[in-house]
Write a structure and sequence with these properties.
The protein is an alpha+beta fold. The protein has a single domain (about 30-160), classed as Histidine kinase-like ATPase, C-terminal domain (Heat Shock Protein 90, 2-Layer Sandwich). The chain contains three helices and five strands; from the N terminus they run E-H-H-E-E-H-E-E. The protein has helices at about 35-50, 60-75, 135-140, and strands at about 25-30, 85-90, 95-105, 145-150, 155-160. The longest helix has 19 residues, at about 60-75.
């Protein structure tokens, strides 16, 4: 795949509407791994998820997780060798939404997704840590998070339960 050969595919209006069958794909986007395209993809995804039936995963949880994951692809996977493509696929299950995100960027360090440890926030403003909150949020808000390298591609899969909530902290 070459990023210059593809443009952002489709608009939010073209992707609206849920399929009734459990496990049926409800969203499939392929877009350049750059900040402006991530924003457009996130906007498209949120338009689709805004049409979710009642009882589906909360849109706020989906938006937090997708924003963190997709921005990490741009900032880290494609950091050294420029842009590439990102593929986002979502399926609607009876108890959760299932996500698959693929890219051709650098592999994750150590061959696994970061641990995402909680930080001690009971410190002065000048001692607050910078960064490192993204993977903590991703791990807190998802289930069955798995990373694997398949050839030259990264693949991250996870589920967001229909009853997921942002934790009180």
């Amino acid at each position: 795949m070459q990023a210059r050969a593809y443009a952002f595919m489709g608009t939010a209006d073209q992707h609206r509407g849920w399929r009734a069958a459990s496990g049926a794909p409800v969203l499939h986007l392929l877009f350049p791994g750059e900040a402006s395209s991530v924003r457009r993809a996130l906007k498209t995804a949120m338009a689709v998820f805004g049409d979710m039936p009642r009882g589906s995963a909360p849109i706020s949880v989906v938006e937090i997780v997708l924003a963190e994951v997709l921005n990490n692809v741009v900032e880290h996977a494609y950091a050294e060798h420029g842009r590439g493509l990102v593929e986002l696929e979502v399926e609607h299950g009876t108890a959760s939404l299932a996500f698959r995100i693929r890219d051709e960027g650098l592999p994750m360090p150590g061959g696994d997704a970061p641990a995402g440890l909680a930080h001690d926030l009971d410190v002065s403003a000048q001692d607050l840590p910078e960064g490192g909150f993204g993977w903590f949020l991703i791990r807190e808000l998802t289930e069955d998070l798995r990373y694997r390298r398949v050839g030259t591609r990264n693949e991250l899969t996870f589920r967001i339960a229909h009853d997921a909530q942002v934790p009180d902290r």
